[in-house]
Amino acid sequence: MDWTAVKVITTSEAVEAVSYILTDEGAQGVQIEDAADFQDLHKGKYGNRGEFIDPSSIPHRQSGAAVTGYFPQDIFVPELLPTIHQRVAKLSDYGLNPGENKVSAEVVDNQKWATVWQKYYHPLRVTNQLTIVPQWEAYHPEDQREKLIYLDPGMAFGTGTHPTTRLMLEALEKVITGNEYVIDVGTGSGVLSIAAKLLGAGKIDAYDIDEVAVNSAKKNLALNPDAQGVHVGINSLLDGIHTQADIVVANILAEVIVPLILQAYVNLRPGGKFLVSGIIDDKASLIRRKLREQGFIIEDEQQMKDWHGMIASKPIEVK
């Protein structure tokens, strides 16, 4: 089966939003080429961010970003292009720079689509303990602390290279001590659930509103024998969920985090942690204010490029 590739030229800060737009319009996979992913890489084995490849050997963009969505044959793409262009342009209303917003399309045969990811995706150590490894790579850790997350990035974004995902991986590494009940909201590729399991979490429920993401998460979980037992299902945020978790983690856009704050508060036990990312710089003050208004205590905040990640806790004694 042939596919139609729709490419949007945009900015690094708008990558996740554009990815969501393409998926929402029917794309069955999203490929990201982001110059920002290479800005801090250094030549040599195990540089200061854990890389063991020469960045100059990998073809990559020198500026901005390109997000490509892959649409199946049963979707008539030409009529979607104006809608995609318009939705990307409106990102400026939410404080995101859409950049050039050039939208183009081309037919791609199935074989090329199945292998196009491999050109851009390589093993990368993203935290002290976690290394992301594409499932087709043979990689042998040299550090006994390394925990390997095997992923096939072909069906959903969130593969560990974007700042928002890395902020959440680092946050999970900070808060998980063992056997916690974790809820992963907007699981995407499932990378955060896999990481939580490898770091020692107990029960994990992972939810996404998109069936493609849910299926992708299940496939990626199957690639990681040490991360079994995660429940993955379709759900909108925490609608209809009534439980008491130790950790709720969400790597989603700030506008979606706002309605999740009350839901997370209700579904966390006293002393539980709420980990959030996907927060562009212009929205950080809004999320801080909403968290505090709800009663959360912000314990930690980290920034990577223009993105913020926060660790908030529900007070042990609720007034």
TrEMBL record:
<dbReference type="InterPro" id="IPR050078">
    <property type="entry name" value="Ribosomal_L11_MeTrfase_PrmA"/>
</dbReference>
<keyword id="KW-0687">Ribonucleoprotein</keyword>
<keyword id="KW-0489">Methyltransferase</keyword>
<keyword id="KW-0963">Cytoplasm</keyword>
<keyword id="KW-0689">Ribosomal protein</keyword>
<dbReference type="GO" id="GO:0005840">
    <property type="term" value="C:ribosome"/>
</dbReference>
<dbReference type="Pfam" id="PF06325">
    <property type="entry name" value="PrmA"/>
</dbReference>
<dbReference type="GO" id="GO:0008168">
    <property type="term" value="F:methyltransferase activity"/>
</dbReference>
<dbReference type="InterPro" id="IPR004498">
    <property type="entry name" value="Ribosomal_PrmA_MeTrfase"/>
</dbReference>
<keyword id="KW-0808">Transferase</keyword>
<feature type="binding site">
    <location>
        <position position="165"/>
    </location>
    <ligand>
        <name>S-adenosyl-L-methionine</name>
    </ligand>
</feature>
<keyword id="KW-0949">S-adenosyl-L-methionine</keyword>
<dbReference type="InterPro" id="IPR029063">
    <property type="entry name" value="SAM-dependent_MTases_sf"/>
</dbReference>
<feature type="binding site">
    <location>
        <position position="186"/>
    </location>
    <ligand>
        <name>S-adenosyl-L-methionine</name>
    </ligand>
</feature>
<comment type="function">
    <text>Methylates ribosomal protein L11.</text>
</comment>
<dbReference type="GO" id="GO:0032259">
    <property type="term" value="P:methylation"/>
</dbReference>
<feature type="binding site">
    <location>
        <position position="251"/>
    </location>
    <ligand>
        <name>S-adenosyl-L-methionine</name>
    </ligand>
</feature>
<protein>
    <recommendedName>
        <fullName>Ribosomal protein L11 methyltransferase</fullName>
        <ecNumber>2.1.1.-</ecNumber>
    </recommendedName>
</protein>
<comment type="similarity">
    <text>Belongs to the methyltransferase superfamily. PrmA family.</text>
</comment>
<feature type="binding site">
    <location>
        <position position="208"/>
    </location>
    <ligand>
        <name>S-adenosyl-L-methionine</name>
    </ligand>
</feature>
